[in-house]
Design brief:
The structure is a single chain. With 466 residues, the protein is of the alpha/beta class. It folds into four domains: 95 residues, OB fold (Dihydrolipoamide Acetyltransferase, E2P), CATH 2.40.50.140; 166 residues, Rossmann fold; 94 residues; 34 residues, no CATH class. Helices cover 50% and strands 18% of the residues. The strands form three sheets. The chain has a five-stranded mixed beta barrel with strand order 1-2-3-5-4. It has a five-stranded parallel sheet with strand order 7-6-8-9-10. A three-stranded antiparallel sheet has the order 11-12-13, with no helix packed on it.
Length: 466
Amino acid sequence: MQPLLSSLFDQTERQPLSVSELTGMIRGELEKRFSSVWVEGEISNFRAHGSGHWYFTLKDEFAQLRSACYRSSNQRIRFRPEDGLQVRARGRLGVYEQKGEYQLIVEALEPVGAGALQLAFEQTKARLQAEGLFAAELKRAIPLLPRRVGVITSPSGAAIRDILNVISRRTRTVHVLFTSARVQGDGAAQEIVRAIKFLNDFHARALKDGRLDDAIDVMIVGRGGGSIEDLWAFNEEVVARAIRSSAIPVISAVGHETDFTIADFVADLRAPTPSAAAEIVAAHEAQLCSLLGTLTTNLARSIRYRIASSRTEVQELALSPAFDAVAARLHEAMVATGAAEHRLRTAITSTVQRAQRRVGAATHSLSPVHLSSAVRAARTRFESLSKARDAGIATRLETARQQLAMLAAALDAMSPLKVLERGYAIAHDAQGHIVREASTMTIGDALRLRLWKGVVDCRVEGTENE
């Protein structure tokens, strides 16, 4: 029986295969049969290897499939896989011969539901926000009057034309240093990063060499509007980190007002459009001119008010009863002095005339001899009287001067200014009226005290009525 059974199988069929041979045959058939296949499932056990490869499992309710996505393929995937994410994978089946397991070699990966770019945007945003790159305390103020502005955008786009048109129209003091970079497509993010580094290196060299006029005060990074794919370069993590590490303050001006990118969150300031960014760096010059005009007008108005207030105060002081009393006393003193001087002159004249008459009578009554002697005696007496007269006049004048000086001193002592010199003050309320009673004032009212020299503004802290 044994030879009979053996004869039923030929020699080839009875030759056994090695495990490697069988595995290789299975691998060939699988790769030939499933060279390109789409598989949908949930990611689990995701692991990113140090080599850059991704390893994970695709599973559904009833089965699971080991999967691998090599570095050369996952570099083109916009988002990062994570456990629990429902995805659709395109790839080919292969066999890992060392363990005798088949696996899906993933070449493309798409999230189910949200788009891949939107998911990548949310993932990048959450990761950078967790690191603190969006923190408000990291935001730097844009210089008030920038002298040199760096601009990074495409040389052929509308953004650079809009920026230059706005700056040239609004100001003549802002200089633009333009650095071209692709803002769309593969490699655009790397060009933007290189442009940011170039401007920072230029700025650092200018500061090191003492060329402060060549230093860059602010940088505009942006482009015009477009789809999420067109704007994607500004969502790349490398661009975000380059903006955050820039030594120059950065204004992000990407797309239209409704477009938001990662660059907007990490920049020091977001502008809704490139034109708006140009208006920001050129706006302060016009604002400063307007502010100076307003301050000049206010200063002139304040000066006119102070002059009018001082004129009113002088007029009130001139009409004050105290000054009227001083003027009246001074006038009375002048009248009294004039009357005394007139009486003195009249008395002197009368005395001289009486003396002259006596001399004349004596001359007629004396003989020539005696007349000569009498004349000499009279002359001597006259000279004596003249001296006495002069001395009397001088004495009376001196007495009058002393009386006048005393009256003037008395008037000066009564002068309000003299009173102020002794430490007193004249108080005026907020309306400029003289305050005579403490009962008319309340706590907190403004007072202006006129001193002997100068004016003091103060407020009432308390009152006391005698």
